[in-house]
Amino acid sequence: MKRILPLLLTLVMAQPLGAHPHVFIDTGLTLAFGPEGRLQRVKVIWIYDAFYSLLITQDMDLDQDGDGLLNPDEKAQLTGFDMQWVEGFNGDLVITQEGQELALSGPQDVTATFVEGQIVTTHWRDVTQDTAGSGTYEVTPYDASYYTAYEVTLPVEILGADQCRSRIAMPDITADLDALRQELFALDRQAQPEDAGLPNIGAKFADKVVVTCASS
What we know:
The chain is α+β, with helices and mostly antiparallel strands.
């Protein structure tokens, strides 16, 4: 991700973790189709790992009483903390339709909560290029640098399209891919994977949601 405060970067780098990834996010998706069968919006749910959630809440001085609950002001402060995207950032989400990447809006209808020590955020994104309304979609949440590891462990819902079915395609960890992962983990903390000849490395380890829609 490209939204982390400098203080958090320092804290994470001080931990005894492998070089990559640093942040772990359980992910869920809702795909909303319109009346003509075209994909119109996608809702993204992120549940941050407990350690990263702790760093965020400490840095923002939230939950100072340690009861695991946020008051309304704290919740308002937390909402949108991860939505300050730099220009050109794709939101760590790629959607293709029959192999053609679809354009997505920025985040909308943002929410944030704090549940059992973990930050949970949601946002919606408009899909602006779906013209077919049928065929196969691939929805892939991933960080190209693999700083953040996304795993689709939460439900995938489809709204407004009974003709569509989804399945999760997990990466096939072959011997070659496992060797690549060990090479990645051996990198110096300050090194960027692309500088070590490993561009777009996150895509190789990404869960992919495959949605197949029959013609109406």
